[in-house]
Design a protein that fits this description.
The structure holds 2 protein chains of 2 kinds. By secondary structure, chain A is an alpha/beta fold. Chain A has 14 helices and 10 strands. Helices cover 41% and strands 17% of the residues of chain A. Classes of the chains: A alpha/beta, B mainly alpha.
Chain lengths: 357, 282
């Protein structure tokens, strides 16, 4: 009995200490301090040296947290537990967050560096007049493939994936919009289609791809491609850049029938307690040198024209990652289709996944 | 035991005190969440009251999903049992049985995700298993993203939970009964079938409960190890809550899962007292 009692006391004391430490650690997360900001960004999506540089230049302390999906990010902002000052949603998520009134309008008198941004990336349909957002990075969805494992085969269009010689070779991404979008694009339909017949046709076409599919997974694909474990994957341009950086045999193409063009953007969520500091951070990230260094580190494409001049021309002239405007005109930006339609996309995606064997 | 219970029953002032933690637990962590899940299952995306989620569940997609979940949960439970029973039996016969048991339990202290990632490496085309197959002369095989890898990893993860209850019931088995059975002329197989198995059936049943029920809603392994070629109800729930934000549909699937689990509990816990002992006497 005494032993149990002593054990219980020890456990309670340890729990109390842990609780205390936890509280201390979390203080950063909800910091309402005037001289600090909390940034909520995708994982591996910034050169952390720049955060230190920002702290040094402005004296504003940065707390940095990461998320792995737009939806998860919005959930936390909506709950409002942590006072995030900056976050980086994709374009369709901005439309959603606007609908839910989760964003604060930007004050352009505090962001002079907007002049550095390529006008092509401003005033886009998901945020007319850039009332709430400024572009951070952009990219495409396409096919990454390792020719050395495929007897030199190359890819130009989505239909190449249906080639019967590719049994058990293709890895798709575990995301409804990308996969169903690929089905729609391969048939020449818009990847924002809300036409039930087109969606049905796209799902049925995807099902015929089943024999070629090796797996439907998430970020794990990067490592599999680098190790030569997988030969073909549907992937985002920046992820492809990571693969290509590690394995020279890998190439990336955006199929000619069309694909997705996406933007991740800096916004100030309604939870912000340091709006001034958030503006300072946005302006800092748009500085030509900072943006160039960041793009160099992250590997995605920067919308910052002034930064492009400072970067290695070998990178910025690479059509695979900086497609010209002509190519871009074939690409489509995701529209927010509404939860009802998103649910339908996901149900079709589920149906496709179940049909894979 | 009975005597103790009797005393507490009579000792009225103490009784409410003892029941507080239990009642609070049940209310907060069992009844409230289940009630909330049932409540949410009656609302659509726009927040209107509806039965559509239930109608939707009986569409072919979710029905097929349910059948496939049951099939894989069945396979996982079967193989876990086939491995766990002899192992538990062997453990009870060893000298330092608590130590050997501990060694089997230890891997379950390691984070599940970590173990799963380890299997990605082990099963990889250039992993040790394939290297072994290569040297034996079988040649490289695609192991990852197959039914086999999914069932194997799941069985590996669930084995400790199946061994424990079976080990306990085998350990409690009075060896005199086995001696008696032998003395009366039964061979090993008959002894096992008519004495050991019926007397450890309760351990097996609780083992099946702790394996089958979670196996129905596995979701992380389905993606990492099976590459989403195996889909369970868990995958669908995750998708409804995280991606589609359709809490109503997600809750509806969860309601059905609770229902299935309840049925399994009923099947595996009935016939406890009645048949096993009476059946024995006959």
């Amino acid at each position: 009995m005494k032993g149990i009692l002593r054990g219980a006391v020890v456990i309670i004391v340890i729990s109390a200490i842990l609780l205390l430490i936890n509280g201390k650690l979390n203080e950063g997360g909800g910091n309402a301090n005037k001289n600090s900001i909390t940034i909520y960004n995708w994982g591996e999506y910034i050169d952390t040296d720049l955060l230190k540089q920002f702290e040094k230049e402005t004296g504003i302390k940065v707390t940095y947290e990461t998320f792995d999906s737009n939806e998860g990010m919005m959930g936390k902002v909506e709950q409002g537990g942590t006072s995030y000052d900056i976050t980086m949603p994709s374009e369709y998520m901005i439309e959603m967050m606007k609908e839910k009134d989760l964003l604060l309008p930007l004050d352009y008198s505090k962001i002079p560096n907007i002049k550095n941004i390529d006008p092509y990336f401003l005033d886009l349909p998901f945020d007319p007049g850039n009332e709430y957002s400024l572009p951070y990075f952009w990219g495409t969805v396409g096919i990454a493939y390792n020719s050395s494992l495929l007897e030199g085969q190359t890819f130009e269009e989505w239909d190449d994936l249906w080639n019967p010689t590719l049994t058990q070779q293709v890895i798709l991404v575990d995301s409804a919009r990308e996969t169903i979008g690929m089905g729609l694009n391969s048939l020449g339909y818009s990847l924002n289609s809300t036409n039930m017949d087109e969606l049905r046709e796209a799902t049925d076409k995807l099902k015929t791809l089943s024999p070629n599919i090796k797996a439907v997974i998430g970020d794990e694909v990067t490592q599999l491609m680098i190790n030569g474990e997988a030969a073909i994957s549907l992937t985002w341009s920046g992820q492809a850049a990571d693969m290509m950086y590690e394995n020279e045999d890998i190439n990336y193409i955006v199929p000619e029938e069309g694909s997705n063009l996406w933007f991740d953007n800096m916004v100030i969520p309604r939870t912000s307690k340091n709006i001034e500091g958030a503006h300072a951070f946005i302006n800092f990230m748009l500085d030509a040198e900072v943006a160039a260094q960041n793009a160099d580190y992250v590997g995605y494409s920067t919308p910052n024209l002034a930064a492009l001049d400072l970067m290695d021309p070998e990178v910025t002239e690479d059509e695979r990652f900086y497609p010209d405007e002509e190519t871009r005109s074939h690409l489509e930006v995701y529209r927010n289709l509404g939860l009802e339609m998103l649910g339908h996309y996901n149900e079709l995606f589920l149906e496709f996944k179940m049909d894979m064997k | 035991m009975r005597h103790m219970g009797y005393r507490i029953m009579n000792n009225k002032p103490l009784r409410p005190l003892y029941t507080i933690p239990y009642t609070a637990w049940i209310l907060l962590f069992v009844i409230t969440p289940i009630a909330l899940i049932i409540y949410y299952s009656f609302f659509d995306l726009a927040g209107h009251f509806t039965f559509d989620n239930y109608k939707n569940f009986f569409s072919s997609v979710y029905l097929k999903l349910t059948i496939s979940s049951f099939w894989y949960a069945f396979l996982i439970t079967l193989f876990t049992l086939l491995f766990a029973y002899p192992t538990a039996y062997f453990l009870t016969k060893t000298k330092h049985k608590q130590l050997w048991l501990l060694l089997i339990i230890i891997p379950s202290w390691i984070n599940l995700l970590l173990k799963t990632y380890a299997f990605i490496g082990l099963f990889g085309l250039y992993g040790p298993i394939n290297a072994l197959l290569e040297t034996v002369g079988i040649g490289n095989q695609q192991i990852l993203f197959t039914d086999f890898s999914f069932v194997f990893v799941s069985v590996y993860i669930f084995i400790p939970f199946m061994i424990l209850p079976i080990f306990n019931s085998l350990d409690k088995l009075n060896p005199a009964l086995i001696d008696a059975s032998r003395d009366l002329g039964a061979n090993s197989w008959t002894t096992f079938r008519r004495v050991i198995w019926p007397l450890t059936l309760n351990g097996v049943k609780s083992g099946i409960q702790v394996v089958f029920i979670p196996a129905l809603s596995l979701f992380m392994i389905t993606r990492l190890i099976a590459g989403n070629k195996v889909i369970t109800l868990g995958t669908a729930i995750e998708q409804q809550f995280l991606v589609t934000q359709n809490w109503g549909m997600g809750s509806t699937i969860a309601v059905f899962l609770i229902l299935f689990m309840f049925i399994i509990m009923l099947i595996t816990s009935s016939s406890d007292r009645g048949t096993t002992i009476n059946g024995k006497i006959k």
